[in-house]
Amino acid sequence: MIARLKEQGFDLAELCEAMEVSRSGYYAHRRKPEGARRRKDAALRPLVAAAFERSRETYGTPRIRHELIRQTGEPVSRARIGRLMDDMGIAPRDKRSFVPRTTIADRTAVPAPNLLLDMPPTTAINQVWVTDITYIQTGEDWLYLAAVMDLHSRRILGWAAAPHMRAELVTEALHRACSTRSTRPPAGLIVHSDRGSQYTSALWQNNLGLLRMTSSMSRTANCYDNATMESFWATLKAEAFRHIPATQQEARILIHDFIDSFYNTHRLHSSLDYRSPIAFESYPYCHLN
Hints:
With 289 residues, this protein is of the alpha/beta class. It has helices spanning 2-7, 12-19, 23-31, 34-54, 61-72, 78-88, 167-180, 197-200, 202-210, 227-239, 248-263, 277-281, and strands at residues 128-136, 143-150, 156-162, 190-193, 214-217.
């Protein structure tokens, strides 16, 4: 690919940088016999295909590259993986654009301030949790899903689904998140949400108080204040729902399978040095606060 683009007048240094290969590596590759390249491709094809299948057909070249390097201990470029994927006719599913639903606010409630605006990045788990609600379309009716994520590890700690979006839904997700941790979360842990009526409700705020947690809320009509959760919803909808589930129970099964059997345990996350959330939490530098 680099050779073809170079012949079209592109700068070699820029091409090598874009393809994540060194110039010396490029020239060494050009000097290799074609047979060696074919043998290497033949050895890599089943590994690429297996990594793609394990990802439930969601990984692109960056994640497959990191998985293969960890698996084999040998370097491999994104360009090579991309070429092999093209040859095999495999490609990750496109992530559908996600447009946040309008938050239904209680105009009589006093929202909490946004404590994340001037806050430095987290240094450990259990410093900041983020939470939100989304909608899942089913053949029966809308299913409402609430989830709580640890901002440091991106792990979904607790989730709850119901045919309503009352305050009980988000409170159930919060208590499930607390149950996930082996020790009680530290006093002052920040729980960030939007300004929806569920989060300004007495039920939610009273539960935060009992758990010694601190409420933080996004600015009005600003979905980017909770961008991490918005990104997770987009990932969930693109990768877990390849069809509209016929029933709400089927949707719950798909949610459980994606979050608890794949996302938390296996899905590589670019912001976590291409580790899964649970694998990231097992490292010494990701300690309990």
